[in-house]
Amino acid sequence: MTLIPNSETDAAYVIRNAASEGKKLALCGGNTRAGFGNAAEPAEMVSSTGLSGIVDYEPAEMVMTVKAGTPVAEIEAALAANRQMMAFEPMDHRGVMGTLGEPTIGGVFAANVSGPRRFVSGAARDSLLGIRFINGRGEPIRAGGRVMKNVTGLDLVKLLAGSHGTLGFLTEVTFRVLPVPQTVETIVISGLDDAAAAKAMAAAMALPVEVSGAAHLPQTVRFRFLGGGLPAGEATVLRIEGLDASVAVRAEKLAAVMEAFGPVSRLGLEESQTLWRQIRDVYPYSDGTLKPVWRVSIAPSAGHQLVAALRLEAGVDAFYDWQGGLVWMRMEADPEAELLRRYIRALGGGHATLMRASDAVRAQTQAFEPQPDAVAALSARVKQKLDPAGIFCPGKMG
Amino acid sequence: MQTNFTLAQLADPHVAESEQILRRCVHCGFCTATCPTYVTLGNELDSPRGRIYLIKDMLENGRAADEEVVTHIDRCLSCLACVTTCPSGVDYMHLVDHARIHIENTYRRPLIDRLIRNLLAAVLPYPARFRTALGFARLGRPFAPLLKRASALRPLGAMLDLAPRSPARASDSAKPGTRIPEAGKRGRVAILSGCAQPVLDPGINEATLRLLARLGVEVVVPEGEGCCGALVHHMGREEQALDFARRNVDVWTREIDKGGLDAIIITASGCGTTIKDYGHMLRLDPAYAEKAARVSGLAKDITEYLSTLDLPRLEPKRLNVAYHSACSMQHGQKITMAPKNLLKAAGFTVRDPGEGHLCCGSAGTYNILQPEISAQLKARKVRNIEATKADVIATGNIGCITQIASGTAIPILHTVELLDWAYGGPKPEKIPAR
Amino acid sequence: MADTIRFLKPREAVLSRRAAIIADLTDLLPPECLVHEARELVPFETDAFVSYRRLPLAVALPKTTAQVAAVMKYCHRYGIPVVPRGAGTSLSGGAIPQEDAVVLGLSKMSRILEVDYANRTATVQAGVTNLNISEAVGIDGFFYAPDPSSQLACTIGGNIGMNSGGAHCLKYGVTTNNLLGVKMVLVDGTVIELGGKHLDAAGYDLLGLVCGSEGQLGIVTEAVVRLIAKPEGARPVLFGFDTSEHAGACVADIIGSGIIPVAIEFMDKPAIEICEAFAHAGYPLDVEALLIVEVEGSEAEMEAMLKAIVEIAGRHGVKTVRESQSATEAALIWKGRKSAFGATGRIADYICMDGTVPLGKLSYVLNKTSEIVDRFGLRVANVFHAGDGNMHPLILFNANDPEDAARAEEAGNEILKLCVDAGGCLTGEHGVGIEKRDLMRHQYSEADLNQQMAVRSAFDEDWILNPSKVFPLDGRPAA
Ligand SMILES: Cc1cc2nc3c(=O)[nH]c(=O)nc-3n(C[C@@H](O)[C@@H](O)[C@@H](O)COP(=O)(O)OP(=O)(O)OC[C@H]3O[C@@H](n4cnc5c(N)ncnc54)[C@H](O)[C@@H]3O)c2cc1C
Ligand SMILES: Cc1cc2nc3c(=O)[nH]c(=O)nc-3n(C[C@H](O)[C@H](O)[C@H](O)COP(=O)(O)OP(=O)(O)OC[C@H]3O[C@@H](n4cnc5c(N)ncnc54)[C@H](O)[C@@H]3O)c2cc1C
Ligand code: SF4
Ligand code: SF4
Question: C233-341 maps to which CATH number?
Fold first, then answer.
């Protein structure tokens, strides 16, 4: 059964009751993530979809407050009407996960979902200014506020962002938005292997041209983008956004430097928008299969080394976002969690999250990166302080 | 910030002045960042803000100085980087002067320390004694490592290390008299011969005299002038310092009355800072206050004075000069651009070493009294200078010249030596042949 | 000394063991790393919130993470409070000690450990100053973005402690948005690492929690921070207005138009005069309010942005517009702004408020602020980060007059409440410290505060880390 409270008071009541009875709850929004996280203990679902609607939107102040169950689509439409956007580019993962339904803004922040711009403009958690949530005692709690700068007390906002429904039930979120850039252009460098691409991307990021997207699309995935419309060879793509006048100048400058690495071509506004949306949504692996998909965050210069090392021992296909620091990997068969995580550690650390896999594989695989003992113990203590009875999605993150 | 003095305490003009200085400090901590001892030792007690606080506590409680306070005040270089940094205009210079006097009056130093300080105060300000002492020092050099092993004697070891390897030439640049320029007369100035500089490097004032003569400036080396008093002043020996000051004020006042002076030229910025402060030092002496203020007003660093003469621009020379701004120049006298502009106009390529605000560790007798910190600062300074890949180093203070020369193979000269050469003087011996 | 703000009663069990504690610390640390002589403790009794002072029990200045861990382990075992200290530039009293506390200063850990341009990161010890990082990477075309006005002196550890911001944070975000990882010593001496050169944490965002935790969750000994390529050019422009309201409204309009400059700073007349006297930056002296707006990027981009901004300013009756013409001039303009608080010391003592308000409320709050200050018979200078609504009224007073000091404190409290009531918060970047601790209930409900305190307890069950700060002294969880 799914409980759908339609006020904060109701939600608090539901949770307070569950806590007193020691009943486990699985928190969700649109539940489009079905099949993500560790296989959790069976629990009753509590959905935020009953808490929907924009509470306050001041385009001039670039701040929006909405109820947690508001569909992402509704928010994006309201923002688009004012030529604004969420800078962190939340992904739509329904394709890759093969799920249906309506993603909610609460789910976006609860999962700290961020797209290609993350490595320069910050993650979802960086845009999140304030929240209301119900803790595991059933108490409504407010954290943060609606102003950009706020260091009043402990930053529970960050803590709840990315907590995947294990610390509290979000009822309302306030976040910062930004103007949509006037225009977008993409520089494509063709024919670079992964290592050369890493060098090229690092060089681009060192230039004063404000690259806002840097991805590398190897041969195996390149044809999936833009309907196969990218030039032949591997594609290393760099995005430039901003005022018309300035994009032209910066793209020119960037292209000139990148020519030293390989043949350069350029994509205009519409193609750019499509391309970066496809990168954001992991389009190549939206393949209707249940082949294991990993999302790896690692130092940008180490991403390609990780893939090269894995290739020697496992069937793996990969492409890179965030200058090489975000590696999307699809495994042919076995998820190879042990191997993958060992290499990540050897390459200076990072984390791998299993995004997709068959139920059988999920049952045997840690979806989230296991943490060192001291940090895991600390995290457990933190969870205990928000959810003393351990009723929220037990087992999901640890 | 808040202060706690009784009216009785404030009746003492020194205390009253310090109170006003302390009131301005807002405890923002900016000054810690540019203080050479803080960046070296990482302890707030060895920072300006820490020292200000120690001094405040000592003065407010009307307490005699004690070992702790003395340790941290002694470590202060008096480089005055903190004064440049302080947005609030805290006059740390006069505060620490007051503290040093208070220490000298209320604290009995350990015997060895006392002996060394007495020795320095009795020798350095007097050229004849200093010259003799240097002779002994050369003989004593083999013992330096031995002395440095006993911590109380380390200053003596440091002293031996600093003595130049070969005796300086005898020079008549300090001989009293008036030098009439070859052609025309654009001005009349007095020049300070000083105490240690003519012994260590007479070439500096020789170059100054040549250059000024060529530029048509009449220069007087007055009879009876001596040490500016900075050395003893920084040891807190107020009476001795004031005696030096009074004597020089008398000498220059005589010259002013005689033929008028456009400036009193100083070629060692350490002395310049003190002479420019005579007005303040003697402000409570009714017989001298006015005269001293006039002298201070006339005191000019040689580069300040040269900047008023509109020297012609010369063809670029292919010589990279790292300009090291002495603390007494940039912080004490706030002269930052003039020396570099003169060097550039004379055709040199001027490079600014990194961390230019940090002291080289010379600081008067500091390299003798605090050899460890001084050595670390010297190493840091040399690293920064060598990173500029300069051919020569220019600076405006004899202390820095001695200190830096002992740490690098790059030749170091006084700015005026390069200028003299550029404007027709002989090529300084230290410049490498190419 | 002002004395309305209380500290925790010193733990008798600690005070009575003072000599033994110092003897034990002497075993744990090299001699130059421990300060305990009564006279030498005095300079550590306060930070830049100089109205309040407390002597510590001792000061430890460790040189390594291992020494920090040893001190923490020891203090934890005996229940000795610990107050972390960076450069002691906190304006909220965050680094002020207490009689039973060991101050743990990071000033001897001030090395830059690694600069990694391929990954655009710098790994530094906690005692490195903010500006040192930008200076170290500047010649290679990079910088570290958050730039508190105190950047010359304040440390990265302190920046993390307070989640510090600065003028250029309008575009680049504050500390938490530029911090990738820390090495940290927990209260019991355990050393952990959070984050690293990769983005986003595995598991809970403990890094986000630590940033801004005012030294209450652990001692940061190293940090990995993000470097950014320097823009091609940057140009501050001065806009002078006849009234503060016009300037405030102009700020809201600039942001509302979708233009986000790198910085929008506000100064009122008293602040302009103070800063000009120190920096000689050429600020106009014949206006009531001044905005420093900085744009950056290519020449074309700066031109386009400036054109739009000048037009908006025109609608608000701007009186003078002056573009900086050279790098030297730009540096002076910023030097003046960044020295504003210190320079205020030339004319009076001050306490600096730090509330943030929604941009639409800027003018309203400015007006109300002067009303409040007038009512208390005090003077105020305003100089602040207008682009993100982070206000810094400097309330001027005479610290040698206890009544004046008390009035200043009261006026400050009213102003902060005003900010909260206008939809903002008590502190935008300086932290709660002791200064705003007792106002926390004005912004948060009992449940909100209890939740924060509970999370704090997860890190430090006995509350020995910086215990007198942030949370009101009554109503804390029992250990
Ligand atoms: C393949 C895939 C890719 C993804 N990619 C990313 C990614 O790149 N980065 C990333 O950070 N996340 C990612 N996610 C997480 C994803 O769940 C979000 O994309 C989110 O938008 C889903 O919205 P929803 O309303 O359907 O949430 P749901 O699917 O209902 O829930 C998503 C998560 O958020 C929690 N949650 C939802 N609502 C609330 C609430 N009101 N209060 C508390 N917790 C709540 C749930 O417990 C669950 O853990 C991905 C998920 C999948 C399956
Ligand atoms: C003139 C002036 C201007 C200022 N301008 C700004 C500004 O523009 N923006 C801004 O945000 N702030 C500003 N500040 C405030 C202050 O500089 C910042 O809060 C700064 O980050 C403090 O750094 P610090 O090294 O001095 O830390 P401290 O003041 O020593 O400590 C600050 C807090 O952090 C904790 N802490 C310190 N080091 C560590 C560590 N290693 N591990 C854990 N906790 C630690 C302390 O316990 C304390 O709670 C200004 C201050 C002054 C005096
Ligand atoms: S910079 Fe000036 S005001 Fe600030 S602490 Fe130092 S002396 Fe005091
Ligand atoms: S004079 Fe120099 S050494 Fe002394 S406190 Fe000031 S900056 Fe430090």
Answer: 3.30.70.2190
Residue A244: band (very low, low, confident or very high) from pLDDT cuts 50, 70, 90: confident
Point out the residues of chain C with pLDDT beneath 70: 1-2, 479
Residue count of chain C: 479
Phi, psi of A94 (to 5 degrees): -65, -35
H helical segments located in chain A: 8-21, 72-81, 94-97, 105-110, 118-121, 124-127, 156-160, 194-205, 219-222, 244-258, 269-280, 303-311, 337-346, 359-364, 373-386
In this structure, which CATH number among 3.30.565.10, 3.30.70.270, 3.30.43.10, 1.10.1020.10 belongs to the domain C12-105? Answer: 3.30.43.10
For the entire predicted model, the pTM comes to 0.95
**Tell me: the pLDDT tens digits for A119-161?**
999 999 999 999 999 999 999 999 999 998 999 999 999 999 9
**Of A131, A133, A212, A126, whose CA–CA distance to A176 is shortest?**
A126
Q: How many other C-beta atoms are found inside a 10 Å radius of the C-beta of residue A266?
A: 15
Pocket mutation for ligand 1, best pick of A14, A25, A32, A33 (most atoms within 8 Å of C-beta): A33
Domains belonging to chain A, first-starting first, are: 2-179 (3.30.465.10), 183-280 (3.30.70.2190), 283-364 (3.30.70.100)
pLDDT value at residue A394 = 73
- Which of B29, B69, B87 shows the shortest C-beta gap to C88? B29
Name the stretches of chain B with pLDDT < 50. none
Extents of the domains making up chain C: 12-105, 112-229, 233-341, 348-437
Tell me whether domains C12-105 and C112-229 share a fold.
Answer: no
**DSSP type of residue A392:** B
| Residue C388 Cβ < 6 Å to ligand 2 | no
What is the pLDDT, as a whole number, of residue B314?
95
Q: Which amino acid is at B218?
A: E
Instruction: State yes or no: chains C and A have 3 or more CB pairs below 8 A.
Output: yes
Distance B369 CA to ligand 4 centre (A): 16
B392-424 exposure pattern, b = at least 16 Cβ within 10 A, e = fewer: bbbbbbbbbbbbbbbbbebbbbbbbbbbbbbbe
Structure tokens at C31: 């001699």
Cross-strand bridge partners of residue A354: A294
Q: How many CB atoms lie within 10 A of CB C132?
A: 22
DSSP annotation string for C164-220? ---TTHHHH--HHHHEEEEEEE-TTS-EEEEE-SSSS-SSS-HHHHHTTSTTSS-EE
One-letter amino acid identity for A143? A
Q: Which CATH architecture has domain C348-437?
A: 2-Layer Sandwich (3.30)
Nearest to B26 by CA among C89, C277, C96: C89
H or E element at residue C405 = helix C402-421
Phi, then psi, of C441 in degrees rounded to 5:
-70, -15
Please give the C-alpha separations between residue A32 and each of A94, A102, A259, C297, in angstroms, as whole numbers.
7, 7, 42, 41
- CATH numbers and ranges of domains, chain B: 7-106 (1.10.1060.10), 111-162 (no CATH), 177-306 (3.40.50), 312-422 (3.40.50.1860)
DSSP C359: G
CATH number, domain C112-229: 3.30.465.10
Instruction: Identify the residue among C198, C255, C305, C385 best suited for mutation to test binding to A, counting A beta carbons within 10 A and taking the highest.
Output: C198
**Alpha-carbon gap, residue C424 to C390, rounded angstroms:** 9
